[in-house]
């Protein structure tokens, strides 16, 4: 499956081995947990098993069709993640670079506000608030 | 009909459980929300501001007026924060 949700870290080299064979361009994006100036102990990421995988697969299929991607991959982690750890990655492959870049941005914009993940900040005082969705992420969808 | 109702993130915490089976005759999500809100204060509080709640019917995003006839699984959760 090109879309995966997992607890464990992933290895970019392994994930990209054989990815996009025959394409002219491969773009990857990796999201990391920010340390928020030392305020953050960890992020806890909850998701909706079943729906998440279906949603990621649907985003990938749509991106492949729209941008003519020859290959794509999405990995998103859940559970407790500490600053500096990987949260997720997307990779896209296409004949020329513009489509691979655009496809990756499209996937990121959809993932941010339409994939059923929720983040909560763990601070030195314990579990904090759930991270609120931000309007700019919602607005980013309108360009597609 | 009986549906599985699922809650995530702060809705799960406020309601105090991740899922429950609900016997309902509701025709739409909105009618189901009214039924759930009448169950107790926890449901009422979690579902009081629907502008902060998103819904999925059988794992597809849906709006409050979506029909739920024949649905098996209805989920309520806050706006998503992936990526």
From TrEMBL, chain A:
Q: Which CDD domains match?
A: MoaE
Question: What start-end ranges are recorded for coiled-coil regions in this protein?
Answer: none
Signal peptide (from-to): none
**Catalytic activity, per the record?**
2 [molybdopterin-synthase sulfur-carrier protein]-C-terminal-Gly-aminoethanethioate + cyclic pyranopterin phosphate + H2O = molybdopterin + 2 [molybdopterin-synthase sulfur-carrier protein]-C-terminal Gly-Gly + 2 H(+)
Q: Which UniProt keywords apply?
A: Molybdenum cofactor biosynthesis
Taxonomically, the superkingdom here is: Bacteria
Top EC group:
transferase
Enzyme Commission code(s) on record? 2.8.1.12
Q: Which GO terms describe its biological process?
A: Mo-molybdopterin cofactor biosynthetic process
Q: Name one Pfam family in it.
A: MoaE
Q: GO MF annotations for this entry?
A: molybdopterin synthase activity
Q: Which family does it belong to?
A: Belongs to the MoaE family.
Record note on quaternary structure: Heterotetramer of 2 MoaD subunits and 2 MoaE subunits. Also stable as homodimer. The enzyme changes between these two forms during catalysis.
Purpose:
Converts molybdopterin precursor Z into molybdopterin. This requires the incorporation of two sulfur atoms into precursor Z to generate a dithiolene group. The sulfur is provided by MoaD.
> What is the protein named?
Molybdopterin synthase catalytic subunit
This protein's species is Paracoccus litorisediminis
TrEMBL record, chain B:
What domain of life is recorded for the organism?
A: Bacteria
Cite the Pfam families for this sequence: ThiS
Q: InterPro entries per the record?
A: Beta-grasp_dom_sf, Mopterin_synth/thiamin_S_b, ThiS/MoaD-like
What protein name does the entry list?
Molybdopterin converting factor subunit 1
Q: Which organism is it from?
A: Paracoccus litorisediminis
Q: State the taxonomy lineage.
A: Bacteria, Pseudomonadati, Pseudomonadota, Alphaproteobacteria, Rhodobacterales
